[in-house]
Write a structure and sequence with these properties.
Length: 86
């Protein structure tokens, strides 16, 4: 019984010390070592196949002064075929 009480006290001291040491740090969550404000990419929707993907991995096409982003060259080519038929 004494051992359990001692372990509980040690654990509580550890938690208190840990929270005290981390007080000065940012509380924002990080993903891949970047905070929420530092994310440099957005998810966009492919206008042809309707899936979401990172903009940095996109295939760009400019039609009538409008920027379009596709998930692959195949989707871009299929979109161009259907667009040219109109």
């Amino acid at each position: 019984m004494r051992l359990l009480i001692l372990l509980a006290i040690i654990y509580l001291c550890y938690r208190a010390l840990k929270s005290w040491m981390l007080q000065g740090r940012s509380t924002q969550k990080t993903v891949f070592n970047k905070t929420a404000g530092e994310m440099d990419d957005v998810m966009i929707k492919d206008p042809f196949c309707k899936i979401y993907f990172p903009k940095k991995d996109s295939v760009h096409l400019r039609i009538d002064g409008k920027d379009l982003y596709f998930c692959s060259t195949e989707c871009r080519d299929k979109f161009e075929e259907t667009y040219s038929k109109k």
